[in-house]
Description:
It contains six helices and no strands. It is mostly helical.
Amino acid sequence: MNGKDYLENQVLTAQPHQLHLMVVDGALRFARKAAQAIENNQFEEGHFALDKSRDLVAELIGGLDPAQQPEMIEQLKALFVFVYENLNYADVKQEASYIHDALKILEIHRESWCELIQTLQPATIDENKTVHSHDPLKRPHHIEHSDKTHQSRSWLT
């Protein structure tokens, strides 16, 4: 099994809250790569990393379901839009400080998300373990019942 197959297997078997964490981790990884590239005057590499990070942040925004706690969703959306705009400004102005502002928000969100997972699922998570994208994953219910058509799911369900 190569790295691509492993990643594909992780994504296909992840629960919605784990998928959300994977997307956040990817956005963080590419934003950090972009900041380092821009700080080293490698603007083309920074542009491509920012593009990938923005795509992942757009996925976070698209995964929000306003039917689930609309006030909280609007606040999260505003934060993700702020992150997206800062990544865009960083790309246009070739300025890493905008990336650092976006990274702060994403890091706080990731930390809060991990705490939420631990709070909501204390029986499934070992208290001595930090939640991250490398935890053992279970198959989502829509994959186990393959006779049903796939429906988009919110990160918060």
